[in-house]
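BUG: 3D viewer hangs when loading the predicted structure for this chain

Environment: internal workstation, default settings.
Expected: structure renders.
Actual: progress bar stalls at 90%.

Input used:
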Amino acid sequence: KAISFNESSMMLGAAALYVGTVYFTTDCAVCMGLAKVEDATVEDGSPSKKKAKMHGVEVDVEEIVHARMADAHNARTSASWNMDVTAHGIYAEPAETKEDKPNKRGSIGFEFAQADSMLGTVLKYKDLKEVVIMEMGAINLEFYHNFQHVTLRVTVPDSDKRDELLRNIEHHSLGRPWVHGYDSTIMGAVDHLKHAFSSKDHSLFLKLSAIPEFLIDVCLKTTLFAVDVKDIKKEGRWPLCFLGAMFWLAVFSYLMLEIAEQIHYNIPALPDSFLGITVCAIGTSFPNAVASILMAQQNKPAAAIANALGSNVQNVFLAMALPWVIFGMQHDYKPINQNVAGITEGVFWMMGTLILVIFFVLMPGTCTLTKCNGLVLMAVYLLYLVQTSGETFGWWPPLMK
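Structure tokens produced before the viewer hung:
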């Protein structure tokens, strides 16, 4: 089978259409009269900041939830918060209690049968690991709990009030969190490595994992320090940061494939196809799974499902089409010969999984995915893994030719 340049270009265009459709979904819904624009402006123009008071100091608070998809700023409307700093942690509640309006978009029509839960209503001091002093009066309180990571960005324009707040936080947290300024250069990576090995709270596993993290951090900080959007003054440089991130993503992906090739070279009994559906596929999809779990815990089913479905759409229409287009442009737009053995069976597995998801959605309790549905989908994946592995090693013939 040969892939023509026109076919690869159509696939790439479909990827661009998908991204544009997702990005402008809300705008299209507003134009069609299916949604209304909510007035969610605040003094500084940010819809995600909330006025609050901590230790008697008036601050602007923004919650930032971290996941593989994005560092998601809380996009709810602004409000005044009462923040009660207790011996256990920071308790926050709206100053004026009122019911949250449901999202008319309906999280793309899906809901998980689970209550909202991230770190809970109390951000506990035992989960406060870092206090990062940023520019322009901002302080990032970094809370970690298992795989969950939440940043509470507190902005205090007055320097004296900011110093007072830092002293109070350090006093109530018993000096356990690491208080430091943010450094986007390579010295920031060095400081993190030193802290990981000197901290008494870090286990042996965390100390050892700090070494590869440091090596990766060195690569990123030596090339992206000038466009690091974590630095408040550089937030406007996000397009360059995105391009740099895509470059390093391509580099790490290439290294992953080279490692798989070396495994096959040294262990010929493990074919490339088997490594592709195990090491490479699971390695690239596991972060997606963790991100979807985090999104579900934050009561963001739209993000969780979009992460799973969207990543597969991009894998088909972008990850395959873009290299084909580039290769075709470099070789006079000639067709590209591809080994497509087993592709028909793979397509049917994908279609069957999608049909199964749609069936679950349309079952009684419409637009609700339950734990039982998840167990069935996991069982289907294990069946796929066993079936394709058996075909790869010749234990049984292919289901389709």
